[in-house]
Design a protein that fits this description.
- The structure holds 2 protein chains of 2 kinds.
- By secondary structure, chain A is mainly α.
- Helix content of chain A is 78%, strand content 0%.
- In chain A, α2 runs antiparallel to α4 (80-114), α4 runs parallel beside α9 and α13 crosses α15.
- Chain B is mostly helical.
- Chain B is built from 13 helices and 2 strands.
- In chain B, α3 (71-106) crosses α11 (280-292), α8 (211-238) runs antiparallel to α10 and α12 packs across α13 (328-346).
- Classes of the chains: A mainly alpha, B mainly alpha.
């Protein structure tokens, strides 16, 4: 106990003492870094526009860039190609951008709150809680309107995450990354078994739901999307405001308290946001995994661990990531399509393996 | 030396059997436990066969198994219920023994072929096999290749100057997720009529198993369980640690390799016939260890018998005691997930 307190004190000192460089040089360096990081963010925004245009342009139906452009700015309802762009590709692009950004922010936030590099709504079972709840109420209560089942998605996400954290944090050693990941995987497996059992009872449901269960942004019901978009967008923006608090929280519970932060409200608010984002994303696109794991880790390599930067970067590049995954899914198995959730799993798994091999996580 | 009693087994219920070339100890308590479990298994099996929409009493069941009774009874028992019961028992045994081997290898109760993705590898190959309608007799071989390849990938990715259980689990979760995504991709590409058998199969069930399946699993299970019992001795030495194992003259890598092959074989044969039924391989070895102590040849057999009892019981529940008939995998998940979470609660995994 004594050692622990001593080390906390040491950490707290380390956190509050400013770097020893001369003030003037530090200021210049910081301003340069600020400029560089801002440029990166602006580049990301430009990337969002580019990837959105690519997403309108690429697909099983070949068309020219001009057609894609005209479909947006100068729509001609008689053109078949422009109608495809407008009614199929535009919605999926919007969905991919919004969900990709929101999931990446949710992943980064979870990583800060749990101080666990493996945190991701999919790995920690939050997504499967939401999909379990949706399939159950759709099957048993016959709810078909998203206005009704979205609340159950939130409840399922909340229940699953509470269970995962209760199990992961209980017992000796507290919530280690492996215990949380295992609890998430096992709860997902159990809920998944139930979800598929319900689907087996009914062919029609199986046919409609199997695409959704793989995590896909195609043919999403836009009414559902607009209904849940406040949760996605509002949740992400709220998270961006929490950057400073998450920085402090990431130092550890004790240090954060020592620095005078009330950790409980931050924890609760950010967890609720994560649950809302995940529930909303699952209701629209099904459980898309690994966006929340891969994107924040890539961004950490670029902008470092400061959450005030990491969160906006995750938002912007998460949107690019999921849209790119969707485009890749359209291209690799033409004319069939690979669901975005499958692509993100293939891209995300190497990150998980890399993190597992990193020193200090699993030893 | 002969005056000093050096056999510690004598004290704790072991019997030592010696021949000029080979000597081994038998744990009398575990053998007694196995006998009790076998008896329970037989009773459970007779009860399981008597249940169903065609009512039979226990004597009729026994008579029908022996080949006497009305034509209806013979048909129901010998064509439908008996193969299913035998398959459930054998599959439970195969899964449980496979779990015992993997848990023993990594010395961690949370490692099992379903958690670390080996079953997913077997099922990916099997789903492709089923959907493309390839030769059903070779399905176990194909599933075995899938399991071995997955196990090799996981082992190589988790290797970093040795295998740490935590790293193996995380890498296994990752590889399992990628393989499941691939399976999902396969099941989505085809129309629902073709995919349906594969989806039922993915849930893990012993519906409609035939005598053909019984022959396949009996032959492979016999071979593999003999191998497992023989290897149990080396497994126990391996558990003492690499240095001590090497000091005792064990060829470490060859032993590990043969254990992995046998473990994958057991898991693959079960998966090939019944689909990836979860949690049996995880929970039964742990229960068996509580009852029968650390790994031993007889202990592995006991684990198998316990696994057979468990899966048969789960199948009875899935088939007769729920409002709707469900695949047995749903029942094992419902029982196994809380058990696993309890294990996790008690473990000290990742605590440095």
């Amino acid at each position: 106990m004594f050692d622990r307190e001593a080390s906390v004190r040491q950490m707290a000192t380390r956190a509050t003492v400013p770097p020893t460089a001369p003030p003037r040089a530090g200021f210049v360096a910081r301003r340069t870094r600020f400029a560089v990081k801002s440029v990166g963010l602006v580049l990301g925004l430009a990337g969002v526009v580019v990837i959105a245009l690519l997403s309108l342009r690429i697909g099983s139906l070949d068309l020219t860039t001009e057609t894609a452009w005209n479909a947006i700015v100068n729509f001609d309802p008689n053109s078949y190609e422009q109608t495809v762009v407008r009614s199929l590709r535009l919605p999926r692009t919007i969905v991919a951008l919004a969900i990709g950004g929101a999931l990446a922010v949710a992943g980064a936030t979870m990583q800060a709150v749990t101080r666990n590099p493996l945190a991701d709504p999919f790995i920690l079972g939050v997504s499967s809680g939401a999909s379990f709840a949706i399939v159950t109420v759709v099957y048993y209560a016959g709810l078909s309107s998203p206005h009704q089942y979205i609340w159950f998605a939130f409840a399922g996400a909340l229940g699953a995450s509470a269970l995962v954290f209760a199990v992961g944090a209980a017992g000796s050693g507290g919530p280690t990354p492996i215990k949380l990941a295992l609890a998430g995987v096992v709860i997902s497996a159990a809920l998944g078994a139930w979800t598929s059992a319900l689907l087996l009872l009914d062919d029609e449901t199986l046919d409609t739901v199997r695409f959704w269960l793989a995590g896909s942004v195609v043919n999403r019901d836009m009414a559902t999307f607009w209904f849940v978009s406040p949760f996605l967008v509002g949740g992400s923006l709220l998270c961006l405001l929490l950057g400073h608090q998450l920085n402090v929280l990431n130092l550890g519970e004790d240090t954060a308290k020592a620095l005078g932060m009330r950790t409980e409200p931050v924890r609760i608010v950010s967890s609720v946001i994560v649950v809302l984002i995940t529930g909303a994303a699952v209701a629209v696109a099904g459980p898309i995994g690994f966006v929340g794991l891969a994107v924040p880790h890539m961004m950490r390599a670029v902008v470092g661990v400061d959450y005030r930067w990491l969160l906006p970067y995750s938002l912007v590049y998460g949107a690019i990531f999921l849209t790119a995954a969707d485009i890749v899914g359209r291209v690799v198995t033409r004319p069939a399509e690979l669901q975005a959730g499958i692509v993100t799993a293939f891209v995300g798994v190497p990150f998980l393996v890399y993190l597992a091999r990193r020193r200090g996580l699993a030893e | 030396m002969s005056t000093i009693e050096l056999d510690p087994g004598r004290r704790s219920g072991f019997r030592t059997i010696r021949s000029p070339y080979y000597a081994f100890r038998l744990n009398v308590r575990v053998i007694a436990l196995s006998m009790v479990a076998l008896g329970a298994l037989a009773l459970l099996a007779i009860w399981a066969i008597s249940l169903g929409s065609y009512q039979m009493d226990y004597l009729d069941v026994l008579r029908a198994i022996a080949g006497r009774g009305s034509e209806d009874q013979l048909f129901v028992v010998r064509t439908i219920r008996l193969p299913r019961t035998i398959c459930a028992v054998m599959i439970g045994a195969a899964l449980a023994m496979s779990g015992a081997i993997f848990q023993g290898l990594v010395r961690n109760p949370l490692v099992s072929p379903d958690i670390i993705g080996i079953n997913s590898g077997a099922s990916l190959v099997a789903v492709v096999w089923i959907i493309y309608g390839l030769n059903g007799n070779l399905l176990p071989v194909a599933a075995f290749i899938g399991a071995i390849v997955t196990a090799t990938i996981i082992y190589l990715l988790a290797w970093k100057q040795g295998i740490a259980p935590g790293r193996l689990i995380l890498v296994g979760i990752g590889v399992g997720a990628a393989v499941s995504a691939a399976t999902q991709f396969v099941t989505i590409r085809f129309p629902v009529e073709i995919v349906r058998p594969a989806t039922v199969w993915i849930m893990g069930s012993v519906y409609a198993t035939s005598w053909n399946d019984v022959i396949v699993i009996t032959l492979s299970l016999t071979g593999l369980s003999i191998a497992a019992v023989v290897l149990a001795r080396s497994l126990r030495v391996l558990q003492l640690g690499d240095d001590l194992g090497r000091g005792l003259g064990l060829s470490l890598e060859r032993t590990r390799l043969s254990l992995i092959v046998v473990g994958c074989g057991l898991s693959a044969v079960a998966v090939a016939i019944a689909g990836p039924i979860g949690f049996v391989a995880l929970m039964i070895p742990h229960m068996a260890r509580i009852l029968a102590g650390p790994v031993s040849g007889t202990g592995i057999l006991f684990t198998g018998i316990l696994g057979g009892c468990f899966l048969l019981g789960a199948d009875v529940i899935a088939n007769h005691f729920l409002p709707v008939t469900l695949p047995v995998g749903v029942v094992t998940a419902a029982v196994g997930a809380p058990y696993f979470l309890f294990l996790l609660y008690r473990s000290r995994l990742g605590v440095s």
